[in-house]
Amino acid sequence: MDTTMAKADGMAVDLRGESNWTAFDAPALVGSSLRFISGDPHGERFRIRYYRDAAQQLKARVWFGPETEGPPGHAHGGAIAAVLDEVLGLTGWAAGHAVVVANLNVSFRNLLPLQTVVTVESEVVSMSGRKVLVKGRVCSGSAIYAEADCLCIAIGHPKTSDEG
Amino acid sequence: MDTTMAKADGMAVDLRGESNWTAFDAPALVGSSLRFISGDPHGERFRIRYYRDAAQQLKARVWFGPETEGPPGHAHGGAIAAVLDEVLGLTGWAAGHAVVVANLNVSFRNLLPLQTVVTVESEVVSMSGRKVLVKGRVCSGSAIYAEADCLCIAIGHPKTSDEG
């Protein structure tokens, strides 16, 4: 079933990525328990789809639904922080490590209107021993809504990743 | 209607505070839009009640429901971060300022089992100009699940608060 277009209040929610992005089921890396953000793809809370861009960086398109409201007509900062926790943590997983998030530092830049689709960009900044440092941001075009740094800790043995 | 005891999966969720705490409707300081955490008090996501303790510090009892799942059987880190954003921001409001959260820095200490009631403690660390620094933690007895620092910015003119 194609969930890139889903009806919300009679309006289609367009979660499609850029033309050079590839759909990627990042939450499946963790498993079906990961449902706070990803588990209700047709609901009124979050709708999210993951992609890898041409450089294999993890991206997400996210819709903040009416149940995420905080300030009138805008997403709750906690909802934005939650999405950043999920996407940045999954960026660590997508880099080949089973990780837990140890620290998440979110700076809120602008109020995010409800029922808009935004992009979460993320990248691994460094990997040192068990520490995987990831940064990312919630944005739309030139508008930045929030930025975050995330310290992930690899648990158990990281998977071997192919070079190149 | 008394929402301190609410049924979940046939089991009562006990959100009562300590005997010397006073119920305090902190979300009402912001208004009815603030519903991501507080807006579904009988649902399967978050159930929360606010109090002031004997020293007038804001406290919350929070239940993380099945919809907040991240790791199997445990709360999503993003759900914990969201609750900390709400409670620490409201601590700024309860201190007499209309605030927005500018930065939230969360350190996750232990996995939090789903469907347990925990306490969020918070306190204003400093107020300087428009900056209100708040810290807090999610805990239960001696168990600490997460700790956070939160920089709030007062918007408009802070309310005048009574001395003593």
Mean pLDDT of chain A: 90
- The shape of chain A, in one word, is globular
**Structurally, how many domains make up the residues of chain A?**
1
Top CATH class of chain A? Alpha Beta
> Counting H and I runs of at least 4 residues, what is the number of helices of chain A?
2
How would you sum up this structure, described in words?
The structure is a homodimer of 164-residue chains. In chain A, the strands form two sheets. In chain A, strands 3-4-5-7-8-9-6 form a seven-stranded antiparallel beta sheet, with helices on one face. Chain A has a two-stranded antiparallel ribbon with strand order 1-2. Chain A is mainly beta and 164 residues long. The first copy, chain A, is built from two helices and nine strands, in the order E-E-E-H-E-E-H-E-E-E-E. In chain A, 45% of the residues are buried. The model of chain A is unreliable at 158-164 (pLDDT under 50). Chain A has one domain (5-154): Hotdog Thioesterase (Thiol Ester Dehydrase, Chain A). The longest helix of chain A has 18 residues, at 77-94. Chains A and B meet through helix 2 and strand 6 of A and helix 2 and strand 6 of B.
